Amino acid sequence: MKTDKKITLLISVIMGMGLLLCASNAMAQAPSLPNLTIGLGETNNPEQVSTLLQILLLLTVLTLAPAIVVMMTSFTRLAIVLSLVRTALGTQQMPPNQIIIGLALLLTFFIMTPVFNQINVEALKPYLAEEISQEDAMEKAVKPIRAFMLKQTRKKDLALFMDIAKLEKPANYDEIPTIVLISSFVVSELKTAFQIGFVIYIPFLVIDMVVASVLLSMGMMMLPPFMVSLPFKLMLFVLIDGWNILVGSMVKSFL
Question: What is the distance of C-alpha 48 from the center of its chain?
């Protein structure tokens, strides 16, 4: 019996060594994998440095793209007005935030399409065709956006930020720095959005006051007024085709 155990143990050791040998041979015959190294090195070619800087600039622009869409387009006004409409109706989370943001973003692309087309024709295509330099392309791309923001910006807001920046009064709009124009545009959009929201609130506020007065006169103080006024506000909004009027008015306000 002891002899059989020894033989079994010896066979197991031999098989284990054979498996290890086969595994080592397989690893030796396996194809080699490529080695990828990312780092910074010295170069005497200025074009390589320029390409790296362009890639870095592109990544930076992509990172700031959401802020550019929010602050330099019609998105701010649209999102605020749609949110105020939902609050005025008193429908809580209907429509959801995803729908409001999606609708505001879709309308933003619709309103900004002429500006984007102008940028594509005057800046992007000539630059890709190597007809103009990168500096000229950036300058031509900014002009349509500046024209759009200037059309929607109040002079009072421009004067405010010019005074904060301690800059002299410009001779024309082209001398206004872009950062000053963007800041003024955002403030103007906020005021315009709240003005539109105030006008939208008035009819729904009247309905709330009438319903609250009727319930109070009937002694039904335990019944929340918004539960009774909500159907009337929805009926009014549907009867006047509120979404059509609202979206049409907001889009036309940028034209």
Answer: 32
| Nearest alpha carbon to residue 251 among 76, 117, 108, 97 | 108
The contacts of residue 85 (CB under 8 Å, 6+ apart) are 197, 200, 242, 246
Per-residue pLDDT 10s for the chain (255 aa) are: 444 444 444 445 445 454 444 545 544 444 555 554 545 555 555 544 456 666 776 677 667 777 777 788 888 888 888 888 888 887 877 788 888 888 888 888 888 888 888 888 887 788 777 777 777 877 888 888 888 888 888 888 888 888 888 878 877 877 788 888 888 888 898 898 898 888 888 888 888 788 778 777 777 767 676 777 778 888 888 888 878 888 888 888 887
Token digits for 15?
Answer: 């098989």
Q: Please identify which residue in the block is written with the tokens 């506020």.
A: 205
Whole-angstrom distance, CA of residue 247 vs CA of residue 251: 6
Tell me how many degrees the CA angle 65-68-70 measures, rounded to the nearest 5.
110
Of 145, 79, 63, the C-alpha closest to 112 is: 145
Length of the chain: 255
Helix/strand number for the chain, H first, E second = 10, 0
Return the DSSP state at 33: P
The letter for the amino acid at 169 is K
Q: In the structure encoding, which two tokens stand for residue 123, read together? A: 């800046």
**Cβ pair 203, 237 in contact under 8 A:** no
Question: What whole-number distance in Å separates Cα of residue 70 and Cα of residue 61?
Answer: 14
Q: Which whole-number Å values give the CA distances from 73 to 57, 64, 118, 211, 247, in the listed order?
A: 21, 14, 15, 39, 16
Rg (CA), the chain: 33
Model pTM score? 0.69
